[in-house]
Amino acid sequence: MRDMTSRERQVILMLADALAVAGCYLLAFYLRFELPVPENMVSLCIYTLPIVVITKIVILMLARCYKGIWRYASMADLMGLIRASCISTIFILAAVLIIPTPFGRFPRSVLFIDWLLTIYSIGAMRFLIRGYRLITTNQPSERRKVLVVGDGDPAEMLTRELFSSPSVGLEPLGIITEDPDMVGTRIHGIPVLGTITEIGEIASDKEIDEVIIAMPKASGAQVRRIISVCKREKVKFRTLPPLGDIIAGVVSVNQIRDVQVEDLLRRPPIELSTERILGSISGKRVLVSGAGGSIGSELCRQVAKYEPETLILLERAENCLYSIDYELEREMVPRVRHVSLISDICDANSMNELFKSLKPNMVFHAAAHKHVPLMELNAIEAFRNNVFGTKTLAETAERWGVKAFVQISTDKAVNPTSIMGASKRIAELVIQDYLEGSKTSFMTVRFGNVLGSTGSVVPLFTHQIKQGGPVTVTHPEVTRYFMTIPEAVQLVLEAATMGRGSEIFVLKMGEQIRIVDLAKDLIRLSGLTPGEDIEIVYTGLRPGEKLFEELLLKGENLKTTGHRDILVGASEQRDKVRTRRLIDALQEAIGQADLQKSVSVMKQLIPEFVGEGPIDQLASLKKAPNKVHKKPPVPVSQRPASDGSETA
Predict the structure, then answer these.
(1) Among 528, 451, 525, residue whose Cα is nearest residue 238
(2) Which site in 29, 208, 380, 543 is 20 to 30 Å from 591, CA atoms measured?
(3) Is 120 a residue whose pLDDT tops 90?
(4) Residues 583 and 574: beta-carbon distance below 8 Å
(5) Are 640 and 545 in contact (CB under 8 A)?
(6) Count of CA atoms in the C-beta half-sphere (13 A) of 303
(7) Which pLDDT belongs to residue 427?
(8) Are 281 and 496 in contact (CB under 8 A)?
(9) 311 within 8 A of 339, measured Cβ to Cβ
(10) Closest of 648, 240, 300 to residue 452, by C-alpha
(11) Would you place residue 200 in the very low, low, confident or very high pLDDT band (cuts 50, 70, 90)?
């Protein structure tokens, strides 16, 4: 037997409503007069019955009350029914007052009784359909008993979702709150059993299989506290994503997921000046260098949402460019025109042809070498790419009239101890001093580490845990700032709308986090115990690495901006003629591949450099050529961990 079509179901529901409306109208007369109903009122009822039924059904149709799927009936649907009933009652009242009848005056109290009965009967019919679906839906033979942890709307909506989606196999037995005053109350019939500190006792008493954290606004500290209780009591836990990931406040069982490291670092949702960002990007030609990198690819995703005329993806690595190009083409924003170009920012001729042909209005410069230990071994390339690639790209942008140029920098540029940090600091000087007075608005955005970037600490720890350990940390006291990639890029876009030229914007990164604590959290999130299931081994700081990071140079006084998470540093006073002369001298030394001279000039440019200097690999190989292959390769799981020193 075939299933009914949508139109057939609507017709059946309309007929059922017509019968319900007629029955309610007749019952209203009975309740008003009781038995026996006066003969003239019986005649009046029969005389006006067609008008009442037709009016109510037509208004229900106009109110789109037959468009809903009633097995998903909700409070919004009930409110629609109430509105339609009110309107129809007003129309009927007007009709009986205006149109004369041969049966005497119409009793207006009948219409009020009829209004109540209609709402009750039609509403009940809808919710009976929903109830029937819940009863007859195929349910798993075993349902996991869960506690919902949270206050307010997310916990309420999730509880309701769990009831309406029995097929997911989760049965909410109780709600855990942070508000002691709520204990003893009920939400959708589910009791509020206790506070977070009582999770263990309640979970044991109710034989709970799982805890679901429904607190999208919770801070990282709150999430860590709940998880620590669950881990102590050996109860499985999952969570809803942060508020910024939940669209339009709708909470769904489909959004329940395992807790991720980002949940432990939750920050308040970032407030964006959407209209201002839209005004700076919409309809413009925007170029992103390093478009295949962690920061560059996220810049491409977010810039595309603001509908630029053309998005230009510039990248030297073919595979990275292919990935983001495919994503934009097939998954993200196929309607946004984008151009993907493989080229080197150090190639002045190539950059000139690119800008001449595509004429970008705005540049986000994210291309850089950023792996600290590797740049200690490849200092010439670090300077060539990070400093003079930036200089070439910036000079080309100025030549072709780009309006705004935003450089992505790093906290490692502050009092650098590494070649990577030194190269990024000199790149800041290029933007601040070398191109001062340009019509192009050059600005720098400086921030710390981002979670999940290529070569960063989180993917490395995750890999080591999967391999069974050990997890390697450089030093027990090493700390780093952390921010998620989308957060960092959102603030970069915001800062780009503030710049007037030569500013260094500094993003608020929150508190520094001990890397060893991050390693322990990741081990626990994997369901293991640090020190028992997975060992943590300290390997010592590598060349160029710091114990802690800084975001501000001496002499840079931070000032507030219009955004709570963005500060701007006042430029320190320098001899800019000398700075330009030294940058030219450094460029000459790099062109000659003279490592010693390059380092000497670099130290004159940034006297705050406190590192030991680069490692000359070629010289080392020449001195001891036979020792290179004597050491066996080190397994990946035992290689020294990144200390979180990547920024993009």
Answers:
(1) 525
(2) 543
(3) no
(4) no
(5) no
(6) 33
(7) 95
(8) no
(9) yes
(10) 648
(11) confident
Contact 444, 431 (CB under 8 A): yes
Among 552, 618, 586, smallest CA distance to 386 is for 586
Q: pLDDT tier at 636 (50, 70, 90 boundaries)?
A: very low
Residue 537: both structure tokens together:
């081994």
Both tokens of 330, joined, read: 């097939």
Q: Are 237 and 230 in contact (CB under 8 A)?
A: yes
Helices of type H across 310-455: 318-326, 348-358, 372-377, 379-382, 390-399, 419-429
DSSP state of 270: P
At position 79, the amino acid (one-letter code) is: M
- Measured at the CA of 202, the angle between CA 196 and CA 203, to 5 degrees, comes to 100
CA torsion sign, 285 to 287 to 293 to 298? negative
Bridge partner list, 145: 171
Rounded Cα–Cα distance for residues 56 and 50 (Å): 10
How far is 266 from 484, CA to CA, in rounded Å? 9
Degrees (nearest 5) of the Cα angle 7, 10, 16?
A: 145
What 3-state DSSP class applies to 505?
Answer: strand
Residues 580 and 107: their CA atoms lie apart, in Å, by: 95
Are the C-beta atoms of 244 and 489 separated by less than 8 Å?
Answer: no
Instruction: Map residue 237 onto helix, strand or coil.
Output: strand
C-alpha distance from residue 527 to each of 443, 465, 532, 637 (Å): 44, 11, 12, 19
Euclidean distance between CA atoms 311 and 486, whole angstroms:
18
For residue 140, say if its preceding peptide bond is cis, omega within 30 degrees of 0. no
CA distance 38 to 89: 23
First to last CA, the chain: 59
Taking the model in full, what pTM does it have? Answer: 0.63
Residue 115 token pair = 């209004």
Residues 6 or more apart from 500 whose CB is under 8 A from it?
441
Task: Count other C-beta atoms under 10 Å from residue 280's C-beta.
Answer: 21
Tell me the longest C-alpha to C-alpha distance in the chain.
120
- Local confidence band at 629 (pLDDT 50, 70, 90 cut-offs): very low
| H/E element, 595 | helix 595-605
Burial of 264 by CB count in 10 Å (0-12 exposed, 13-18 middle, 19+ buried)? buried
- Compute the half-sphere exposure of residue 38: CA atoms within 13 Å on the CB side of its CA: 10
Token pair listed for 305:
């949402």
* DSSP letter assigned to residue 555: T
Q: Give the residue-averaged pLDDT of 12-18.
A: 82
Contacts of residue 109, defined as CB under 8 A and 6 or more positions apart, other chains included, come to: 32
Q: Any idea which residue has 């509908």 for tokens?
A: 307
What count of residues does the chain have?
Answer: 648
SS3 state of residue 37: coil
State residue 334 phi and psi, 5-degree precision: -60, -20
| Contact in structure between 610 and 423 (CB atoms under 8 Å) | no
Inform me whether the pLDDT recorded for 24 exceeds 50. Answer: yes
Using DSSP bridges, classify how beta strands 144-149 and 170-177 pair: parallel, antiparallel or unpaired.
parallel
Q: What angle do CA 179, 185, 186 make, to 5 degrees?
A: 115
